[in-house]
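Subject: Interface between my chains keeps coming out wrong

I've been trying for a while to get a sensible model of this assembly. When I model each chain on its own everything looks fine, but I need the whole thing in one frame so I can look at the contacts. Pasting all components below, labels as-is. Any help appreciated, I'm running out of ideas.
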Amino acid sequence: MQEKMEKTVCWCLVLTCLLVPLAGAADWNILKLQTHDGLKISLKNYCESWRMNVELHNIREFQVVPEECIEYIGKYVTSIQYKVDSQRATEECLVYLSTSCNLKKDGFDAWIFDIDDTLLSTVPYYKDNLYGGRKLNVTSLEEWMKSGKAPALDHSLKLYDELKSRGVQILLVTSRKEHLRSATIDNLVKVGYYGWTKIIFRDPANELVSVEKYKSDVRKKLVNDGYRIWGILGDQYSSIQGIPNPKRAFKLPNPMYYVA
Ligand SMILES: [Mg+2]
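Reply #2:
Try treating it as a single job with all components included. I did that and got this:
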């Protein structure tokens, strides 16, 4: 009897020794995820952290979304969470406007909006392009922009209308090029944006400088023209950084691409 028990224990040990490393190896191979300090994390943990660090501007200049996170990013930008995150950002714009802005109402109170993924969504385009997992093809993106099918970001439209009703001048500053002007205007009007004061596109003269430099230079001109820029809403740091600084800048989430 004792011999039988010993045999069973022995077999159990052998099996445990065989199976445990196998399971470990399988985990490692499937997820390839284990941080330096040995903390085991899931693919969702990894991709969530990647996205968060993009938003925190710790990860910069990425060319494509990491392959293992394409599915995660696709789910995020089509999720309720993305909508809630965007809504929170635009609501904070209104909190700021109501509590900290002493509007003069002389026609020079102004707010700057970016266009892509701020007023108009490019998610339908990126849906067909691995949600940023494929390197940007400018020609195909511009073809899509010309079709004028970009939907509005609902919460941005609400903010836009609210600002307009408070007498704030709406200034649209986009890195879209001049040749997309009429398609862009048609698209904006079709989804409900109208009544802006200025819309500024990139002309060939400033296509060679960075978007941040181009947008800063535009702001410089607007400030010289007398506008008080109370705030900016954009989805890229290049839309909101640079001198002259706005009094406040608000960033919408965008983990699909990076524009310097
Ligand atoms: Mg944008």
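Reply #3:
Confirming on my end. Confidence is low (pLDDT under 50) at residues 12-30.
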